[in-house]
Request: fold
Amino acid sequence: MTTRIGIFGTSGMAREAGDIAWACDYTPFYVARDEKEAAAWHGAGEVILESEVDSVSQHSFVIGIGDNGIRQKIASRFADRLHFSNLVHPSATFGYGQRDLVEAARGVIIAAGVRLTSNIQIGNFVLFNQNATIAHECVIEHFVHVAPGANISGNVHLKEGTWVGAGAVINQGNETKKRIIGTHSVIGSGAVVTADCQPNSVYAGVPAKRIK
Reply:
């Protein structure tokens, strides 16, 4: 019997989540917000509306939406109605015991080529995109998005809702003081972070500077 998995979203991120599902031998179906969004779908696979999810609530779900705020709203709206599982591409690799730490969370999506080393604490509904690397003793809070090719060094603490852009580098903290990236901060693509970042701010450049 084929295992189905529901994916909230109909954009490119949802289709990428669908690719991970296929690689895991799941058959994905997609959840559109409304009729207009469903009509715009141009991928492979069945699309249903959010209003119809109760009819398929026996299946597991993930949220294939890159926007952290939208992901959080959907998770909150359906927290008591659906089971959110993790979706991990078979090519992702883990240090000793790290896979168990991932499975202690829920709603985590890990794309192809991601590497997580060891002793990384991971919150719920975190999205690790292709070829991102996360090193030892990091803390990744809920609803973080790490974009393709980002490199998070050891002893970094990404606070809730942080967005780390493609190819960004966050240099390491240490055992007594982690490098802190504040709540809902945005780290621009290609930025190199060498100091702590304030909450609700945007950083860009090499080295990264606050621009907003």
In short: The helical segments are 12-23, 35-39, 68-77, 98-103. Residues 12-23 form the longest helix (12 residues). Residues 29 and 46 are 5 Å apart (CA to CA).
